[in-house]
Amino acid sequence: MAAPKLQRVLFMAPFLAALLFVSAAASSSISSAAADDPAAASAITTTTIRGARRSLAAASSSSQGQGVASFSLDRYGARGDGKHDDTQALAKAWSAACASSQPAAVLVPGGKRYLLKLVTLPGPCKSSSVTFTVKGTLVASPNRADWSDADRRHWIVFRGVDGLTVNGGGSIDGSGETWWENSCKTNKALPCKEAPTALSFHYCTGLRVQDLSIVNSQQIHMSVEDCTNVQLTGLSITAPGTSPNTDGIHITRSQDVQVTNCKIKTGDDCLSIENGTHNLHVSQVVCGPGHGISIGSLGDDNSRAEVSGITVDTVQLSGTTNGARIKTYQGGSGYARDITFQNMVMSGVQNPIIIDQDYCDRATRCEAQASAVQVSNVVFKNIRGTTTTKDAIRLNCSKTVPCSGIALQDIDLKMQGGNDAAGSTCQNAKWTKSGTVVPQPCSSKSKN
């Protein structure tokens, strides 16, 4: 431990020397002044010491600031007028920052709009930490022709970057209107094609995304894929409730993820939690409009899915299609287990508590299959509010692979308007209840 202490002493030596020099000068001034005017000596003492403290603080701050190399888009030819293409300027700034041997920061200056087409910002970076600070706005080109069929799924992509922080309080604007108009979900006469995700993180470790506004994405707003040790906090994600497939945050094949203090208003899932997600903690999230918080869909195209260790805690949902939801396709395999939804307040939610192992999103009826993703050890606890449909609790599970270990505790869900009593339905679900549970679990069509 001696070496680090010695380094700290050597680091502070210039500042201590400066302070001693200032103190010596102050003593000389005070002695001279005291002979003629004691009050003047006191004033000199206060002023000089304050000045010394300011000088020491400024010197320390300057030295620390020298440890971070800053790369502004404007330095690399960006115009920031929202009209000219600034994609190459961003790519160049990122390349320079990523090649830096010291901690680096890419700056998107405030008060400007930087027009971007598809851009990938790759790692690994030479520095152990890179910060991407968005003060202004990154805006997607409104021209759909700027995306080719070779890659229509992405807009801004960070790939293989460890120790990445994205922050700054600025905005990411997907210019999604033209994409929504040409979606097959808006106009069924059109062919179904993919649309870009606004902000994608692939294969990142130690990722921090905080204090950003993401608006009007072409499709998904943010996707976290194949990442480890992730913190998402202070995010505002907004799109019209009618915008198709505009999930707020999509998480797949990632572990050790925290989502906190976010407001999400979109046309699809506020959070979609898919295959390969393990150890996820969601808290203090406000959701609506949208489709709620969904685990799934899992097991599509007869695939295997594995999801575990999911906690959704302290969430408000208003006017959403679903509340706490698990959805799986028939024909899949694997598991969704050790899941807790707790401390949730729902207002005007269509399906507050729902497990659906017969999920089908096709125009035609999905063929019945015996295999299914196993759903087990799921807790719904301290959930209250109002439902707009009769069945506030729906446990629709597989006949051959029933849901098991479903715990309902302290539930209070009422019909919006209060004219009728809410109900519940179950199929092939093994459940228990504790505390007061309203409506009575599985009060009709029960097959336990």
Explain what the structure shows.
This protein is α/β, with parallel strands linked by helices and 448 residues long. Among the domains are: 2-65; 269-448, Pectate Lyase C-like, CATH 2.160.20. 18% of the residues lie in helices and 45% in strands. The chain contains 4 helices and 28 strands. The strands form 2 sheets. The protein has a 17-stranded parallel sheet that branches. Strands 5-8-11-13-15-17-19-21-23-25-27 form an 11-stranded parallel sheet. The radius of gyration is 28 Å and the shape is elongated. The chain starts with a helix and ends in a 10-residue tail after the last strand.
Question: Which outline best applies?
Answer: elongated
Provide the helix percentage: 10-25%
Q: Structural class per helix/strand content?
A: alpha/beta
Q: How would a textbook summarize the main sheet?
A: 17 strands, parallel
CATH topology annotation of the domain at 269-448: Pectate Lyase C-like
Strand content: over 45%
User: Average pLDDT value?
Assistant: 87
How many angstroms does the end-to-end distance come to?
63 Å
Number of helices: 4
CATH class of the domain at 269-448: Mainly Beta
Low-confidence stretches: 1-65
Number-wise, the strands total 28
Give the radius of gyration: 28 Å
User: Which architecture of the domain at 269-448 per CATH?
Assistant: 3 Solenoid
CATH H-level name of the domain at 269-448... which superfamily?
Single-stranded right-handed beta-helix, Pectin lyase-like
